[in-house]
Amino acid sequence: MIAVRDSKIAEVLNGARAVFLRCGYEGASVDAIAEEAKVSKATLYAHSPSKDRLFLNVVQVECDRLSAEISRPLSSVDDPRAILDELSRRMITLVMDDDYIRLLRSCIGAVPILPEAGEIYMEAGPRRATRIVGEVLRGLHEARSLNVDSAYKAASQFIHLSVSGVIVPQLLAVDQPIDAAEHSKRAVDVFLGAYSVGSNG
After folding, report:
1. Fewest C-beta atoms under 10 Å: which of 13, 59, 109, 151?
2. Are 100 and 135 within one domain?
3. Do 10 and 72 fall into the same domain?
4. Residues 22, 62 share a domain
5. By three-state DSSP, how is residue 196 classified?
6. How high is the mean pLDDT in each 10-residue block of the chain (201 residues)?
């Protein structure tokens, strides 16, 4: 019985995800979600009492998935530049992902009507990502590979360096080719210039 219930929940969430990412929050309808999920409206409402709650669940699940991508084990554990470059490329790849951009657009569109969507996105997305990157930077500081007084502040700056100039063109669907390798190299160069051992930090 539990397995069947879990399967139905997955079907509802997958259907809702597809419709919300395709149509946005306002453009999505319960009928379209039920059709996409191949369940009845009664089944859909049994697992989620409202369209609002379903949207918030989708935002949470998607942010969890994206955070898992950032927190995967790193290939390098000794070379600070290699570690930072890998982290930077992961974030660039994430913000260039079509589904991520659709999710962010959907959240931006939903916030005037459903402010909770913005808070869930910020907490499960950017704030969590900053904590994940902060832990990596704290480890490099403790290994005396970086001079980082505030890991959270430094992580926020590193993420900004990595995605600045990438995310806005993606949001606006502006055709602006991005060389991820070159972009991450510049981000890492600037960050190391500020936080390498011997710098002012």
Report:
1. 109
2. yes
3. no
4. no
5. strand
6. 59 92 94 91 84 94 89 85 94 92 95 96 93 95 93 96 92 87 95 82 52
